[in-house]
Amino acid sequence: MTIRDALFEAKIKLDTAGIPSPWLDAELLLAHLLRQPRTYLTIYQNQPLNHVTIQQFNHLVMRRARGEPFAYLTGEKEFCGLSFAVNKHVLIPRSATEELVEAVIKEQRTTIREQGTVIRKSCTLIDVGTGSGCIAVTLALQLPSAHIIATDIAVQALAVARENAARHGVTDRIVFLQGDLLAPVLKTQTDRLIDCQTVLVANLPYVPAQTIAPNSDLSSEPRRALDGGPDGSRPYRRLFDQLRAKGDRWHPDCIAIEIENDAYGALLASAEWRSLQPGYAAERIGSTLLMRSIQQKPRFSRGSLKTENCQLITGTVPDQTLVLPTCKAQTNMSVCRRRWP
């Protein structure tokens, strides 16, 4: 059987199974198996395949026909221009999470640029529910001066995250902790975090439980990485409750989370949000929610101390008033990050 013959057979099987892009998927699977670019399949379409390769290819096609995500078949997924190992124990990275990472990187680089050499505290980024480690590893690469902590409740997920950290050469930059959400950090790291600038980053499950089973794309991924409870907000409400419990000793300078659709509205209506939000200025960017602390360790000027161009304004989202420090001098009403003198 030649490459061309194998592709045509695979295309028919995938098309019959209702796969949206049968020919593309067939090409990508065979190219992956042969470790060649897709152009190779066209140039050498009459080249015969050996028996072992045909068996392996048919097995991959069968799994894809059953609806298994492509990334699990190849064991790879690109994220922020980097290749990450993935398997059935971790959620497949999405483009929305790239937006979350980009927002955190922009926030940190802006802080460093505006505060300059006056920063004396170290910066710690905490990735809660790290999964494949794509967030923690990317942040470690893009923010080389930051200390990274990554948590996950699943030992199998942490194994994948450690593999990806080793793949990209940042093993020594990331501390991996096993436990429920922020619990292992609060148990072992609170004292050292008090003197750090800290950013909490999380892409927790936010898919309403009832929508997972019928969706073949989601049903192949680990349910614990998707299930956000009845309204999609439960994991974030639990995270906020953990933060509130430690609020007298430590709170993050910035919280960045990914949340969409109904889960976002449910979170804003929750008691956990109302108890935590007054200490933060919130801004939503696409599916990313940024919350900047306005509490004990102010990063923003809010008084009259050499801030004649600054004032506080309020903006609204459904059922919630957000206090946003802004600068009159900037026509785009962006957040003013001028430090206290």
UniProtKB/TrEMBL annotation:
Keyword S-adenosyl-L-methionine: yes
Lineage, highest ranks first: Bacteria, Candidatus Uhriibacteriota
Domain Methyltransferase: 120-191
Domain Release factor glutamine methyltransferase N-terminal: 6-75
Presence of the UniProt keyword Zinc-finger in the record: no
Keywords: Methyltransferase, S-adenosyl-L-methionine, Transferase
Protein name per Swiss-Prot or TrEMBL: Uncharacterized protein
Native species: Candidatus Uhrbacteria bacterium RIFCSPHIGHO2_12_FULL_54_23
Molecular-function GO term, any one: protein methyltransferase activity
Gene3D superfamilies (UniProt xref): DNA helicase RuvA subunit, C-terminal domain, Vaccinia Virus protein VP39
